Predict the structure.
Amino acid sequence: MSIPERLTAELKEALKSKDELRVSVIRMIKASLKNKEIEKFGKLTTDDDILSVLSSMCKQQKESIEQFKLAGRMDLAEKEGKELKIIQSYMPAQLTPQELDNIMISTIKEAGASSPNDIGKVMKLLMPRVKGIADGKIVNERVKELLSSSL
């Protein structure tokens, strides 16, 4: 079942069970996907587009959680955390740190990178491989660490 079909089916279930938070988050996801479709001039969204939208939504939720915690609004941070879990349930399983490191090391070797100055070459090859299954910010930080140390 595709993600849009799954969203529709789970929206119906959430409406029947009166799960207001889940209904709200699924509608938010569907609206974001619709906006992406409009942005692409009505062309159907691909799996990459859907992953991109979901990844962006996860990133926004994480940033909101940080801001709410800094402001001392634990109630809102908790609500955002619940929403984040729902959004993440539609994303593919994330890579473990060890799996991610293995991919990064092989990509660094493939790119022939030897210093932090080569991060652009590495990220260009690496991001399409880990899109949707690893956080880009974490990937970037870890690649910098690996390039700074000797492999």
About this structure: The chain has two domains: 3-88, 97-148.
